Every structure is written in C-alpha cells, then in structure tokens.
C-alpha cells in the first residue's frame, strides 16, 4: 500500500517548480492533493492532469496566501472536496533581492506578507480542518535563512520560517501534528530560469560550494517532503532540514 494512502494534502503555490513536484510526489505515494495556485490556473490544472494521468487524485484550488481574506475559503474548499487535511505543505513564497540601500517598506511587506504572515494564517486556517488523528506540516524554507548578501529581507523571512517551525512543533505536538522546515538551496525551477541565475557567476559559485557538485532538482526536494509527510518520519519534529547537497551558503 502507498505510504500516504487515505491522506489529504494541501500544497500552497503548487502550480510550478518545487510545489508542483511535491504535489506530484505526494499523489504518487497515495495522497489526495489540493494543488493551490494564485494566478497560474492553467499551470495548476496541468499539474492536476498529470497527477490524474498517473492514477492519482487531485484538485486545483485558487487562493493567494498573501490575501488573508482568501485563505479561509481556500482551506474550506479543500476540506469540502477532499476531506480533513493531514498534510500541509507551506510552499508558496516569493523572493526579491535588493542591497540594503534599496530596501523599502513595500519590498519588506511584500515578502513578509507572503512568506511569513501567509504561512501563519494558512496554518491557522488548516488546523480547523485538520484530521483529528494528526499529521504533518512542512514549511518550505531556504538555506538563505543563514543570511545572503543583497537578500536581507528574504533571508529574514526564511529565518522566521525556521523559528515558526520550532515554535509550532512545540505548540502542536499534543495534537499529534509534526512541524518541520525543508530548506532547499538553489533548485532549477522556472523562477530560477526567469531570474537569469543559470549560467551566471552566482550559479557557478553555488556549484563550487556544493560538495555534490550540482544544484538541486525539484524532485530532490519532493522526495524529502514525502518522507516528512509519511509515518517514516514519525519521530522527526521541529527540525530544519537542509536540502542543498551540503552547501550551507
């Protein structure tokens, strides 16, 4: 039997990149998956179609985690269509690099509203529809939590994700809900391509600092997410797991 059979997963920001790969791997392991998207409807529906073509169960659900008013309806739709949630992957996030002299209130709030407040409010709403038997919350952080030049605000949001993970692991343990952070390094996604990182000096520096000699692929991260979602990690709680081939920036 598939290790996630009978479980319902909500993956935020799952229309592309790491989120899409996680959604597909959770489904491949038996979970019914809600593929959340904010604006990329066609891409989310493609992820759902791929899951169904492989014999899995999935639905696409719209809702921006940066909009507090959209989060409640998003979670309610998932619970109505698929049932009580037992896996929440807080993947939705944004990043903007800027040196300190270019940091503005808008730059700050845009990233914190999605990466931190959105994560908190999504978790809060999901808990109201969580399986009474417990489950797993996986917060997608970043090795950038350690601090990256020209990314002070983004790094701060991911540092906050690690802190939230520790706090919620203690707070929700009594409910049999485990909370862990999964922190990738550079991963080859649509966003990394669009940002022009591939082939850049930064890309080459990352590879040079990575003992395994490459950047990550979405499935590298998705496989770890499946582990954290399953009973294979039943004794793993409150951890920040680095997934960057040994590169800690």
UniProtKB/TrEMBL annotation:
InterPro entries for this protein: KR_dom (IPR057326), NAD(P)-bd_dom_sf (IPR036291), SDR_fam (IPR002347)
Enzyme Commission code(s) on record: 1.1.1.-
Alphabetically ordered keywords of this record: Oxidoreductase
Domain Ketoreductase per the UniProt entry, residue ranges: 7-190
Pfam families: adh_short_C2
KW Amino-acid biosynthesis (keyword) present: no
A GO MF label: oxidoreductase activity
NCBIfam families assigned: PRK07231.1
The protein's name in its UniProt record: SDR family NAD(P)-dependent oxidoreductase
Naturally occurring in which organism (per UniProt): Acidicapsa dinghuensis
